[in-house]
Structures
1.
Amino acid sequence: MEIIDEIKNKFGSKIKKFEEKNPRRFYIDVLPTDIVEIAKVLFDDFSLRFIIATGIDRRDGLEILYHFSEDKTGKIVSVRVLITNKEKPEIDTISKVIKGAEWIEREMWELLGINFKGHPNLKHLLLRDDWPEKNYPLRQGQGEGRK
Amino acid sequence: MNSKPRTVIPIGPYHPLQEEAEFFKLYVEGEKVVDMDIELGYNHRGIEKLSESLHWDQSAFLVERICGICSTSHPFAYVNAVEDLAGIEISLRAKYIRSVIGELERLHSHLLWLGLAGHFIGYNTVWMWSWKYRESVNDMFEFITGNRQHYAMMKIGGVRRDIEKKDIPQIEKMCDDLLPVVDMFKGAVMDDPVIHARTKGVGILPREVAIDYCVVGPTARASGVDIDVRRDDPQNSAYNLVDWNVIVLQNGDVFDKAAIRILEMYESIKIIRGCLECLKKEPEGNFDLNVKEIPEGEGIGHYEAPRGEVYHYVRSDGTNRPVRHKIRAPSYVNVPSNQYAVKGYTISDAALVLAAVDPCYCCTERVAVIDKEKNRKIMNGFDLIKLSQQKTEELKKKL
C-alpha cells in the first residue's frame, strides 16, 4: 500500500486537511496537540526520515511545517500545524522522539519565539547569548524583509 | 559527575575560509574524549531573511554564496523548489547540463576532502597530489562556465549556459585523465596498512544512531543507510536517465567514510560520461524556458550535495519575492552526530573524526588546548595536527 494511504488510514479524523500537490509532495494539516504522536508514528512505525522543520510567521498565527521524507520512493510528506496564540506560542517538542530535531527547535525558538515544551536544551543556537528578549528576527516586520 | 579532572578543548570557532563556523568543545579526561558540545552561529548571515527581500532570480545568486565548495548544490535545490512550486518541467538538454555541473562539483569537493584528510593523518603527498588533480576539475569549470567557483549555471527554468558539441571532447578527456588518478588514490587508501590502523574502527556511527540523528549523504551511506536524493527523487535533473550506482558501506567508521567518497568519484565520472553522450544527441540551444511569473503556492526542492542532502522550501504569494525560504544544509544534521562519534576516542583521533563528516577542516586549524586551572593556552591547531601526524609516525614504526 502507498505510504500516503497508510498515513490516511492511521490518523483518520486527526487529519484536518489533505493536499496532494503532485505525486511526490503531500501536505497534511493537523492540530498542534497531536504533533508528537504523529511524528512518533511517522518516524518509528513508517520509518520516514525527518528532514527539517520550517517555521513561518503568518497573519493568523505561527505555522510549523515538519518535513518527512520516504527515501524509497522519494516522496515528501509535510505535516503542517498552526499555533494561533501569537502572544505566547507553545507546542510540545518532538526532539524526544527524533534526536535530529533538537537543533531546528532551538533555531525556531530563538528566531520565531516559539516555546517548545519539554525540550532538553533550549538555548541560543545561531544568535549570541545576550540577544535581546522579545526580538525575533524571522517574525514579519523585522529587518530588511517584507514589512 | 565524574570526579576525574576534565579538560575542555575548544576547537574553532572562526575561520574566514570555512563554510560554517563552528565551535566544538571537547571534554577530555587525559587523552580520552568523554563529551562534546557544539556551538555555532558565528557566521550566521541571515540568508533566509535576506532571500525574502530579493527577486526570485536574484535568490539563486544569493544561495550560491552559502557555500564556496558546494556552490552549485544550493542553487540546484533552490531552482528545483521553485520549479516544484510552479510545476515546471525543464528541457532534456538542461537536465543533462545540470547533472554534469553537479557531478564535476562532487569530484572537486571529494578531492579537496581527500587531500585534507591525508594532511591530517600526516600523508602530505596525498594532500599535494589530490589538490593538484583537483585543479583539472576547476579548470574544466572555468572552461564551461567562465568561473572556477560560483559557476552561476542554475536558473529557474533551465541553465544559464550551454555545453556546445565542440566543447564535449575536452570534458571527456578530463574524465579519461582523472580515472587513473582515482585508481591511484583508491590504491593509496585501501591498501595502506597505516591508514587502515588509523581509520578502521575509529569514530563509528552505528546505523540506528545515524537514523536517529537523521544524518544524510556519505555520512549516512557509510553507516549502511541507503539514501541518495539523486536516485530517490531526481526532480529536474538527469540522474534517472543515465546508468550509475549508489555506494553504501556498512561499518560507519572513518575508513568507510573515506572509501565511500573515493568510490563515489567513479560514479561521478560515469554520470558525466553518460550525460555527455546524451548531450551529443540533443539539439543545441534548447536549454532555458525563460520563466517570468512565479504563481502562488509552495514548493520543495532537494539535491544531493557532496556532503549530503541540501533542502530548500519556498512559499510564494504570487508576487516577485518569496514569502518564506527555508534552507537546510547537510552539515546541519551531520555535525550533531559527532557528539556520538567522538566519544571514547583520543584527541588525536578527534581531529580525524570531526573531519570525516566533511564539515570544515579549517576549524581544526584553530584548535587551542587550554589548561582549565591556569586558563592558559598550551596547544594550538598546528600542535593538534602534529599530534595526529605523530600517531601515524608511531604506527608506521610499529608495522
Note: The mean pLDDT of chain B is 84.
2.
Amino acid sequence: MAKLFEDTDKYGYQSDFPIVEAYNSAMKDLVRKRFAESGKQWNDFVADSAYDDITPADIANIEQRLLAYGYRFEPSAMSSAIERPQAYKDSGLHDADFCFEHDNAPTAPIDVDGRELRGAGDNVVTRNANVVGIARYVRTSDKVLQYLTDGVPVDTIAIVDDSGGTLTAPILEKFKAVICAGGTTRSHLAILTREYGIPCFMNARLSGVKEGDKLELEAVAKAKSAEDYANGLDVSGKVWRINIK
Amino acid sequence: MTDINITYAQLLETNNLIQQNADETYWLCATRTVQESKIFPVSAYILFSYLNCFYRYPTLLRKIEAQMSAEEVGDRARNQGVKIIAWTLPCFYLLGREMLINWGVIKPTDAVADVAYVLDFWKRFQLSWHRNNGNITNKQAGHRAQIMPEQRLQVFHADAFECREGDPLHKAAQSFMATTAQYGFLVSCESRLTMHNHGPYKIADNREMLVRDFRELSEYDVPWLDGVGQNIPYNNLTVTMVLENCHINLLDDWGSFESEPEMRSEHMVAVGLYTADNLTDGHIPVGMGSKEELTNTFNDLTERVKDATGKLWKEMSGWTRDQQLDAGALTYFAVVKELAHIAGVYEVDDWMMIDERAERFRPLLNDEYGNLFLGELVGYITTPSQRMHDYTMMQHTGQPARALSYFPYSILDDGDYTKSVGPMRPGSSNLPPKSDRYRTSEGVLSLAEYNRRSREFVPSTCQDRYRFLCADWVKYHYDTPLADELFNLEQKHSRLLKGKGAGLLRADIEKLRNGD
C-alpha cells in the first residue's frame, strides 16, 4: 500500500466524529490503492490521472460498505429519507401524535392563573405583551402545502423544528407566533420573524405540548443577545399551556 | 497578474491571506449559527460547492482577468453593489482544498500557483472594493463596511423619505424587506447570499444609514427563477435605511449586522429605494418621486415577490435531493459569478454546472456526514489537517489548530509541488436547462447580447476621466469644475441634489432635507 503525504502528521491523527473519520479514512485508503496501482510519482498522479483513477464508482462503494454494516444516516432534509429509506433512519416527521419531549424543558404544575409551564425558548424580540394562540406543529412541506391551500388557521402558534427560512416561506407571515426547537436568535427564521414583526422563540425546550393546545408565550421576556449566548446566560421566555380542561 | 511566481515573498503573503481567512472563518461560523433546512441538505450542498470552487475558480477567475483586471472589476462592483465576495471567494475555495487534503486526494503542496493566484485576485478585488476605507475586509475595518464615496452617500441621504412606525411608507418598506428577505432565503436555497448590507454611514449624531442590497430577484442566472421571477421588474434592489437611536456596532464579511440596541421597527426613520447593475450608471432611483409613489412601489413589489415566493416554494418542494444538492451547491459556488458579468464573460457552462471532478464525490455527501464534516471543518476545527502543535493558540478559541492549511515554505528548496488542478472539466446539472433570458436594467436580454453590452459599457465614474478621483482628491479640490462634474454624475437622478455640485457638507444636506 502506498503512503500518502498526510499519513505522516505529527499533530493530526483523526477526526472527532466517527462517521467523519470512517469516510475520510476510506477515501485515503482509496487514494493509496489507486496511487500504488498507477505506478506514478505523486506529482504526475495528482495532475494527470487522479480524476480518471479515482472514479465515481469507487466513491459510491465507500457508502455501500458502510450501509452493509447496518449503519443508517441521520436525515436532515426531508427528501433524503424519503428517497432512500434504506440508507436513512426514519425522520419521524410524519408522526401524527408527535410532540417535543426535551429533557431540559422547564415544567411546573398549574399556577393560580391557570397556566401550566410546559417549556421555554430564546426570545427574538421583546414585545409589549405576551401572546396567546393555538399550538400547531408545522414540520413537513405537506403541512405547509395544506396551509397554503386551505389557509393558516387563525391564532396559529406554529411549532417547528427547522430554524431555516425556507420550509415555512409561503405562510410564515400568517402565523401569530412561532416556537422553534432549534437555532438561535440569529438563525434565518429568527431574522425573518423579526422583519415580519412576529413573536418568536428559538432554541425552544418543550414538553407535552400537543397539537391544538392553547398556549401563552412570554413575549415580554428579554430578547436573547449575542452577549447572552457568548456568556452562556439563560434569559429564556416561558411557554405555558392555558385553559386546561 | 494571472501568472504567479512562487517566491518566498509570494508564499509569505499567500499564507497571510490564508490565515486572515482562517481566523474569520471560525469567528463567522461560530457566531452566525448553523444553517438548517427541512427542504435542503444544506451542509451537504455546502461541501459540494467547496469542491466545485476548488476545481473551477482558478480557471474562471483567469478568464475574467483576461478581459478585466480584478481591481477594475472591484471598481465596477463598488459602483453597482455585488453579492458577498469578501469571505466567500477565498474561503469556499480554500475549504474545498482542505476537504481534499483530508481525503488524501491532494497535498498541501498541490495547486500552488492556483491557490496563490486565487488569493491574489481576491486581495486586489477586495482592496478595490474597500478603496474608500483602505481596508481589505470588513473584519480589518473593525467589522464595518464603509464602501460608498461621499457623492453617492449624499444622494442617498438627501433623497431618503422620512417615515415613522405605523405610517404607510414605514409599513410598506418593512413589509417589502421582510418579504424580500424571505424570498431571498428561498432563492438562495436557505443561504443569505441574496442579501448584502454595507455601512453604517453617519447621518447625524443619533442617526446612521444602512444600505441593504437585495440581489438577483428576477430571471437571471439560476434556472429556478425562469418564469418564477418573470414579474419582478428589477433584478437588484437597494434599500437605503436611516436608523435613529440605533447604532450598527458590527457589520461582518457575510454582510450581517448587529446593533445596539437591537434594531426594531421603530428605529427606521427614513428610507429610499434604488436599482443598479453592471449596465447602470450607478444607483438609479425606483419610485422615489414622492413619498406616496415610494409607498405604492414598495407595496407593488411586495405583492410580486410574494407571488414569486409561492411559485418558487412549490417548485422547490418537488425537487429531488440531487436537484436540491445541485441548486444549493451552484448558489454557493456561483456567488462570485457577477464578476464574470461585469467583465462580460459569463457562460452558463462555467457557472451553472458541477465540474465532473467534484461530481464524483456526490455519493459521499449524505446528510449526516455532511453535517459533521462541515462542523469539524468550520466549527470545531478538528480535522487532522487543521491540528497544530500544542503551543499554538488559535485566535478566538486558543485551541492548537488552524482552520486552513498553509503552503510549506520547503517547496522553495525542494521544488516538490504541483502548480495547478488543470483546466476545467465538463460539468453537469440535474436542474432544468437555463432559459436564455436575463433581466437587466436594459430589459430582458439574451446572454450573448448581455455579455456584449457588458463588455462595451463603462460607468461614468469608472471612465479614465473620473476613475481615480477619490475622497482624498475631493478633499483638496472640491471647489474645482472637475469636482462638480464628479458629483453631478451622482446627482443627475437626485430629487434634491441635481446640479448642486461638490461643495455641500452633510449638514447642508440635512438643511435641504428640512426645506431650509
Note: Chain A has two domains: 5-71, 115-242.
